[in-house]
Design goal:
single chain, 104 residues, mainly alpha, 0% strand, elongated
């Protein structure tokens, strides 16, 4: 009997692949944010900051010394971070396309 890959894991891979495939766009977005030329949405900024603090912080809902459960919560937070960053990268791409159209 064939094994099927759950739809959710395919979507997770897709988010990561989208960021990897568009890494130049992502880094361009980060550079423009730092320079002040592009304003990231407030919810995305909050999610990024809170997620990074949660992943780096030793205080977790499930402590990291518990073998699987401890890493699962960090992985879930990382998943939501990647998902949000993917949507922000797409928003940035639409912003740049509109910017190019307005200059023509």
């Amino acid at each position: 009997m064939a094994r099927f890959t759950p739809v959710r894991s395919v979507q997770n891979i897709r988010h990561g692949w989208h960021l990897f495939k568009n890494r130049r766009t992502m880094w361009q977005m980060v550079r423009e944010i730092v320079k002040g030329q592009y304003k990231m949405s407030l919810p995305t900024l909050a999610i990024i900051v809170i997620s990074l603090i949660y992943i780096i912080s030793p205080i977790d809902i499930a402590p990291d010394f518990i073998p699987v459960l401890g890493w699962l919560d960090d992985g879930l937070v990382l998943y939501f971070l990647l998902k949000r960053f993917t949507s922000e990268t797409q928003r940035f791409t639409r912003h740049k396309a509109a910017e190019r159209r307005s200059h023509c």
